[in-house]
Every structure is written in C-alpha cells, then in structure tokens.
Design brief:
This protein is an alpha/beta fold and about 500 residues long. It has helices at about 25-30, 35, 45-50, 50-65, 110-125, 135-155, 165-175, 175-190, 215-240, 260-275, 325-335, 335-355, 365-370, 395-405, 425-430, 440-450, 450-465, 470-475, and strands at about 5-10, 20, 70-80, 85-95, 100-110, 155-165, 200-205, 205-215, 245-250, 280, 295-300, 310-315, 360-365, 380-390, 410-420, 435-440. Helix content is about 45%, strand content about 20%.
C-alpha cells in the first residue's frame, strides 16, 4: 500500500467519515500526513472534500450502500496547500454477517490531468476558439431550458443581439489580426459586463448574443447601456473607435420561442443601426402626435434691404438632442416617417396660423400632399409649398395633378434645391411655381466661375421671362424671389434674390 499512487483508506460511515486507516500515499495526494487524518488527528475527511461536492458525494455513497453495491464517485478535494484536485474514489461497504454496516474501505486516486483534458475537450466543443465565448451549439443546448424555466416561474428573459459597428473598416485598415484582437477584447468586455449566470455567445462574425435570465424590458435596456458604456471605455483604452448597436427582445413580450426572440432581436438591431439610437427594444414605435416634433420658423431676409420676406418652417427634435435628419432617420427605421411628415406639415400650418405670419414656406413632398385631402389655406397667410427639385423628376403627370388640387385651395408652390444637379425644367414649365429656390451649390459655382456665372444669369433670366403673370414677373424684378437654405440649416440670411 505504501507504494500505491493514491490513498487507501478505511473509515466509519458517519457524516465526518472518521478515518480508521489511511495509507502513506495520502501525503502526496492531499498534503496531509496519515496521523493528521486518523480519528485523533487534526483533519477529518469531510474537511478536504470540496464543499460544493460534499452533499453529492454523501448521497451517491449512501445510495450504493443501501443496495450493497460498490461505489465510484468523482469529486474535488482541497489540499493542505489550498490547491484543488480531481479524484476518483472507488470502494465498498464492509458488512457483518447480520447485515450491519461497520466500515467503508476504498481507494482514492488523482485524476486531475484526465479531468482537465476532458474539460478542455468539452470546452472546445461548446466554446468559440477566437473569443472564448460559448458557441451557437451550446446556445442551442441551453436556451430551451432557460425558456422553460422562465415560463415555469413566470419570469421575463431578455435576449440582446450586439453588433460591433464598422468592424469591417477595422479589418480593412489594420488587418484581420488586429481585427481578431479587437473582437477578443470586446468579447471579454461584454462578458465582464454581465452576471456570471448570464449566457454570452458568439453568434457569428462580430455579433454577440447575451441571454439575461429574469430580466424585463427596463432591465434589458440597463444591461445594454452598461455594455455600451464598457465598450466605450475599451475604445478609449485601445485608442480606436469602437461602439455597439444592440437589439433587445424580451420573453414573453416579443415572442415565446427561440426563433421568435432571435427574429425580434435582429429586427430591433436593424432599427438601432438605422435610427442611430444604438439600442432598441423590439419593434417599439416612437410617439406620433403633435409632441413628436417641434416647429420653429426661420426668417427669410432680403440681403440688400434686410427686409423680411417671409418665414420658413423647420422641424426640430423636441428633446434638442439630435438633428432633424437624425430624427427622420429614427422614424424611417420603424416605418413611421410618412406619418411624422404628415404631423409636421399639419403642425406647421397650425403654428403659422396662430402666429399670424403673412408668408410662410413649408417643405413638403407629394407623398404627404397625396395622403392629405387638400386643406383650406389659412386666411391672411400666403402659404408656399416647397417641393424638392429631385422629387419632380418622376411621375410628372401624377405630381401635377396633386399640385393643381392644392393650388385650387390657394396654396402656392416653390421648387426647392434648384440647380443641385437635377434637371426639372419640364416640370417647372408646366407647374409654373411662384418661387424658385436656388440651391447654395449653384450660387457657389456661379461665384467661382465666370463661365458658369454667364450661364446662370441667362438661365435665371429665362425663368423670369417664362414665369406666368405680370405681377409675378415684377415681384422677381423687385428681388422678392428667394433661394438658398443649405439643406435646411439655420443661416443668418438664408434668402438670395432670384438672379
């Protein structure tokens, strides 16, 4: 026994497994000498079995003893040096003739190397080799039980689909090796930002899925914000621009099956990217009422006389956090942009009427005008509907029909962004807009090129002469035609006299 690579023992079947005999191999295995483990020693067997394994070891051995079968249990021990080993314990009960159990005899051997090798192989089967996160195979194995537990306990469960923004540009600019390092760092950061019980999976490419048990929509939002914040700190540390877009789906609000939740998280991720919000939950839509957009009016000024010619209506984010382009982008991502534009147009008319403005310019498109039955023009207010030049290049007949319906209500028209690179003269000739707004790019080219200046001068002169009605021609000669708003930006003096 002295030469066996392990520990032979005989012990009682009490809760401490009081040792009556141990072989000399116990020292190499446990770091304790035989005398320390025996009945009058300082260490009982219960003390060096890992506390997390103690109950399962006791249960398995007692089950075998009840049927007088040999037992074989695998568990962890803590050595005298506080290190951890895996051991295999094989033994049997020693029974008297009358069936009384009076001892256990067995042999404990070190299987740490084998166990670690098995764990390594198991990890390779369920772990992503690049990031160390779980792979989709493990996700498929575990997600069913997570959903079943959530349903049984009537708890919510959140699925976060995280996508690294502009990852392809990192690979293209710095190479795939640098891209791999970034992906590993981001994966580790996301793992560190979650709870130990959360499931973090490399979904594919630069996408990572996080499954959060017992988490509501508000909890999912907080977790997503925490992850983005951590990646932001990583970005600073690595001195490289890193950010995440995250789509969130919650069981059972957005689905009760794996496919439904993943599909919804993917849809939410698309909205998060397209809207610029970075984080989006489900297909949650944005509010659509008069509070969804703020209306302001910008004066249009004659640069020669400083006389205010009218006011241009502009939309703004009610929170003042993003540009109008970004606000429209958000609503476009959830399919609500047309309705937002309709609300914006109606509110602009309402505010202009309440403010008693005598002349207002409202940017609108034919899709909005078609959806709305032609509204009555506010009395005492000249309302000019601005149509972008690029919009009038298609469906000319249909657009002219819509324009005539609104013109019959007293509305006037302006062609916006004229000269921005589109040719809309055929439409202009038939619509005969009251105003043409020269695009800033055309003005800049006119200033920088004598040749283009001559061309522009003759073009504008021809437009003047072709405009219908003597009063209209005189108004342009008096410098009341307007141009130039640089795509809706607020300019100190956005108006340029026509020509």
């Amino acid at each position: 026994m002295r030469n066996l690579p392990g520990m032979a023992y005989r012990c009682r079947n009490d809760r401490e497994w009081t040792m009556e005999f141990v072989s000399d191999g116990c020292f190499e295995l446990t770091g304790y000498r035989p005398a320390e483990l025996l009945e009058n020693g300082t260490v009982d067997r219960k003390r060096f079995i890992h506390p997390d394994d103690l109950d399962s070891v006791w249960y398995e051995i007692q089950s075998s003893l009840r049927t007088r079968r040999p037992f074989k249990v695998v568990y962890r021990i803590q050595t005298a040096e506080n290190s951890q080993k895996w051991v295999s314990d094989q033994g049997r009960g020693v029974f008297a003739a009358d069936g009384t159990l009076f001892a256990l005899e067995g042999f404990v051997s070190d299987i740490t190397d084998r166990k670690l090798a098995e764990q390594s192989l198991a990890d390779q089967a369920v772990r992503d080799s690049l990031t160390g996160l779980y792979n989709r195979r493990y996700f498929d194995e575990r997600i069913g039980s997570e959903l079943a537990r959530a349903g049984r306990n009537q708890h919510c469960l959140a699925v976060l689909l995280c996508d690294l923004d502009h990852f392809k540009s990192i690979n293209d600019a710095q190479g795939h090796q640098a891209g791999d390092e970034v992906l590993r760092a981001v994966a580790a950061t996301i793992q560190a930002s979650t709870r130990g019980t959360d499931l973090v999976v490399r979904w594919g490419g630069d996408e990572i899925v996080v499954v959060l048990a017992e988490t509501t929509q508000s909890g999912g939002l907080i977790a997503a914000q925490r992850i983005r914040h951590a990646v932001g700190k990583l970005s600073e540390a690595m001195k490289i621009t890193l950010d995440l877009s995250i789509g969130v789906a919650v069981y059972p609000d957005h689905g009760e099956t794996v496919d439904e939740l993943i599909r919804m998280a993917d849809r939410a991720l698309y909205i998060a990217k397209k809207s610029g919000d970075k984080i989006h939950i489900g297909e949650e839509q944005y509010p659509l009422d008069e509070h969804a957009i703020t209306i302001v009016f910008q004066p249009i000024v004659d640069v020669w006389s400083d006389h205010i010619l009218g006011y241009e209506a502009l939309g703004r984010d009610p929170q003042g956090l993003i540009s109008i382009g970004q606000l429209f982008k958000k609503y476009h991502a959830v399919g609500q942009l047309d309705e937002l534009k309709r609300i914006c147009f109606v509110e602009q008319l309402k505010v202009a009427t309440e403010a008693r403005l005598t002349r207002v310019f409202l940017n609108v498109d034919f899709a909005v005008l078609e959806r709305l039955a032609p509204l009555p023009k506010p009395p005492g207010t000249e309302v000019i509907l601005e149509i972008s030049e690029r919009e009038v290049l298609h469906d000319v007949e249909k657009h002219l029909e819509i324009a005539m319906l609104w013109r019959a209500q007293g509305f006037k028209f302006a062609i916006d962004d004229f000269g921005a690179g589109f040719v809309s003269l055929p439409f202009i000739a038939r619509l005969m807009p009251e105003y043409i707004k020269i695009d800033r790019s055309l003005v800049l080219q006119t200033v920088s090129s004598d040749t283009f200046k001559g061309f522009s001068k003759h073009l504008l002169l021809a437009l003047r002469m072709y405009a219908h009605g003597g009063d209209h021609r005189r108004r342009h000669r008096n410098g009341e035609g307007i141009t130039g708003d640089e795509g809706g930006r607020d300019l100190p003096h956005p108006g340029f006299p026509l020509g």
